[in-house]
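Working notes for the structural subgroup meeting. M.R. asked for a predicted model of this chain before we commit to crystallization trials. I am recording the input and output together here so anyone reviewing the notebook later can reproduce the run.

Input as submitted:
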Amino acid sequence: MEAIQDEAVAFTSALIRIPSINPPGAHYEDCARFIGETLAALDFAIEYHPAEGRPEHTRAHPRLNVIGTRHGRVARPLVHLNGHFDVVPAGDGWTVDPFGGEIRDGRIWGRGACDMKAGIAAAIFAVEAIRRAGVQLHGSVEISGTVDEESGGFAGVAWLAQQERISADRTDFAIIPEPLGVDRICIGHRGVYWFEVQMRGRIAHGSMPFLGVSAIDHLGLVLDRMRDVLKPALAGRTTDVPVVPTAARHATLNVNAIAGGQPIDGIQTPCVADRSRAIFDRRFLLEEGFDRTRAEIVDLLDGIVKDVPEFSYDLRDLMVVHPTRTPDGSPVIGALERALHRVLGRSVLVASPGTYDQKHFARIAGVPHCVAYGPGILDLAHQPDEYCDIADLMNATRVMALAILDLTRTVC
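Returned structure, recorded in token form:
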């Protein structure tokens, strides 16, 4: 592992220098090919999987996934290591080049350094360290680099699962090296309900607003009731799942966007707004479930209808992600716990405040024995001056190598 460090760091730096930004899905093919060529040079059999049929997969921005496979003495058990190579836009506030892959002060800097290009490096070089140590795996291992996790993963892991390339028929265990912390095993995530509420008003002259119905005023009623009634109720609900940070163990609601009336920078028109809308991000707990979560929104809106006769709305579901949790006693948890105690002397079970591709492994592929474990600090994800400590990268690589050896000997 010490001998392989420079290669792992150089790979991470090179991967950061490919600006695989989502949206729109820039340089995905470059990223997939770089990962594939690296895996091929390390004696993996390589497959490329364009997400044919997905609307995101276009000539301008093709969605290309890559999978490398190395067989052991027998085909099963098979451990699948998955990392997404798309990154969010850099944004402002950087003091280093976000796509420079700079190596300084014991850290690798740049957008995607922790989320999660260092995680892909840890997966690749964990398997390579086993090979260079002269150890033949009993079972098999796969490593995939996939697209679009930052926008839901539907052209990435979800698509591969729908094509049955990732499935319970061939995949026993999965590890996703997301940056939850080098001593943390992530066993799942909260649920997501994104929805849009559109208010329908009645247009009128702005000098006589009493002749119209303002959709903006009515949207204000929705926001007030969510703030005064719903949010306090959500704050009082706590999950038993070990979500981090602690404040994320409660159900939450965020207003993502608001629009209504005339364009702010357009030509002024004296009209009462007859349309307004807002998009909401509701994170719900395993104990709540989706049906209860949606019904609560409908009840709130219908309650305003009873109080305000002219209040009229449309509710549109945008995305639903159900909470996911790895089964207690899962072999993948046990293997990582043993490896962590051997390498770091400690381990912690956590769950993620946001979602990641475990949802697709569990619900589409039917692979319940899936966790997230990898290098990087969760709080640095999507932040300016993102970095990953080289020490964390290498410790995570050690842990993953030991866990892979353990899991490929596990009786399924």
